[in-house]
């Protein structure tokens, strides 16, 4: 005797619409497909056609749906009703919230705008923080990026012309040695994961510098378990070793960095510590052909790294000279920093040698 089974849809449609966008749970901006049903978000998946993540989506990105559906999501402004720290709030309408804000800010704006200090969190309005602060008249502001990727991006742009995420990325296809410093253990960057995979696949070497070996550090060819907070000192010791051994790419420094720029070294001068510039504001270098200052990007100019310029009683040295004077100091020798960094002198020299290859 056969029994009739009720019809079952074993693969019901997740949604009736799919929107392609980018994930805002971190700065990677991975491509995502957002599935909606009746106009409401039901599911998020990686977009396989997106060049950043190729469909890969981390747990943080998948959890992005909770920014819409979380019970704790604020739907209206909250006004504190109890003592500070009591956690007592009530919902109010936007008109009331704006009136309160104006009552606080207007007197400051009219009398002492610099007394306002504020911080914006990780949202997509942080790019407007500086503009708004300048219009208000206060220099006392900060945003999430100032404590996170913006510092990294600025350093990357000034040293190698680019940085991760929306600012560019390493040359994964030609890199022979990849050094990774202090990556947060909760960071799930899909571009970095994919890039490291490509490096490993073609045999490039990865050196990870981090107090603990997990995450990206776990797949590195070499792990440096450094003492927390001493990364900078470790890097300066590497610079010391490389400069002392003459393993410096001078042509690169001349063409792509400010190493040949002349710096005012007269502490009594109002221009002390600033670049020497011409009347148009262009930084000057010492031209080896003429022995005189010239614009760093002038036609036929051959910048001198090793010699400075003295004129009118003021001495100017190149950035490279100042670096050499500072970092060739014995206090940056591997033996001097090893105990503080928790890295042996032999290993510091070994890693410097890897960089010099």
Number of DSSP E strands: 15
Which structural class is indicated by helix and strand composition? alpha/beta
Number of domains: 4
From the N-terminal CA to the C-terminal CA, the straight-line distance is 79 Å
Shape: extended
- Total helix count? 11
The biggest beta sheet, please? 3 strands, antiparallel
Output the strand order for the largest sheet.
Answer: 1-2-3
What is the topological layout?
Elements lengths: L16 E6 L8 E7 L2 E7 L12 H4 L3 H4 L8 E3 L8 E3 L2 H18 L6 E3 L8 H8 L4 E3 L5 H12 L16 E5 L8 H12 L3 E5 L12 E3 L6 H15 L4 H7 L5 E3 L19 E3 L6 E3 L13 E3 L2 E5 H9 L6 H8 L3 H12 L1
Parallel strand pairs: 6-7, 8-9, 9-10
Antiparallel strand pairs: 1-2, 2-3, 4-5, 11-15, 12-13, 14-15
Helix pairs in contact: 7-10, 7-11, 10-11
Give a short synopsis of this structure.
The chain has 357 residues and is α/β, with parallel strands linked by helices.
Structural write-up:
The structure is a single chain. The radius of gyration is 28 Å and the shape is extended. The longest helix is centred in the N-terminal third of the chain and has 18 residues. With about 350 residues, the protein is α/β, with parallel strands linked by helices. The N and C termini lie far apart (about 80 Å). The mean pLDDT is about 90. The strands form 6 sheets. The chain has a 3-stranded antiparallel sheet, with no helix packed on it. A 3-stranded parallel sheet has the order 8-9-10, covered by helices on one side. α7 runs antiparallel to α10 and α7 packs across α11. Helices cover about 30% and strands about 15% of the residues. It folds into 4 domains: about 50 residues, Single Sheet (N-terminal domain of TfIIb), CATH 2.20.25.90; about 70 residues, no CATH class; about 55 residues, Dimethylsulfoxide Reductase, domain 2; about 80 residues, no CATH class.
